[in-house]
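@channel sequence for tomorrow's demo:
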Amino acid sequence: MTEFRFIHSSDLHLGRHFGSIPQPADGNIRGRLMEARHGAIARLATAARDHGAGHVLLAGDTFDTPTPSPTVLQQALAAMGEAADLTWWLLPGNHDNLREGEPLWDAVRDGPGNVRALTEAAPVELEPGATLLPCPVEWRSAGRDPSAPLAEMPSDEGSLRIGLAHGGITDFTESGDSIPPDRDRTAQLDYLGLGDWHGRMEVSPRVQYCGTPEQDRFKHGRRGVCLAVTVPGPGAAPQVREIETGAFLWAEDELPLSPRQDTAAALEVLLPATGRRDTLLHVNVTGWTGLPEQADLARAAGRVGPDFAHFELLTRHLGTHYERADLDEIDRAGALRLAAERLLEEAEDESRSAADRSIAGDALVRLYAYAKEAAQ
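structure tokens (generated this afternoon):
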């Protein structure tokens, strides 16, 4: 074989519920996120065809649990089965591990003929001249290097050796239950496709994390990708190209503020002009502002928030510059003024914990905003 092409992906986590994302009363963001994960199957199939590949290698955690619902399982297998021109190779990971998920992997084995369960640490012929060396995860916490079997797996002379494993990488000073970064050399691999890390990472030219094809956390700052891999021949360096497959962008941004700044305008400058409906955005606000500026910021966030799949303004690192004149805008006397004075005392009381001071400060900001709205 002179050249072999395939798609390397992992961590689809089909069936994930996204319980940490607040569900708006007039929307269904969790359902949209779950559907996007299922839709990644079709996007992987398109990537494979565009790359001229006949195989999709999934390096673990195809399912979020070892016991996915019948709907999640059967619809996933059906979607892969409909891409009948491709062969899908599914490796058990820590979330859908082999021992806790025996019924799951029985169902995969009994599924469409082009969907293959990699439930044994034994060589499998992908095509003549290309051998897949899989390392299924038996238990969620195995306590050993999941790639260890690769060093002992045989293959025909002259055949490409393509490893597939799921787990964390270690550096050269560590050992035990992590994958060593030189596993490609110790196992004489032409390529080692890894899963578990949800972000894209190249360990070395032959050892690659593809990341999840559909992101699920505010960490990596980009849409999910898969890897289109071409191995020119035994011993040759693989050619690796990223193909974007993510429907949603999970992003975090910083908004530093200063006193008397136009906070609404600063927020608008920060926000993306397009693609908001498919963006989940956390804005971390830092610096110092007064009560009027914080009320303006909250109103601006309330206006733009519905544009996004999910939008959250995080103000725990935003300090408040208090002025007594601002309390007059809440009320000059009476119960509201007394409440404002009490909240201000608590927000500035150094004997209280930072969390308690923050709660009092947030409450004072809300009280100020309500009072201004009522006055208008």
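heads up for whoever presents: The longest strand covers residues 279-290.
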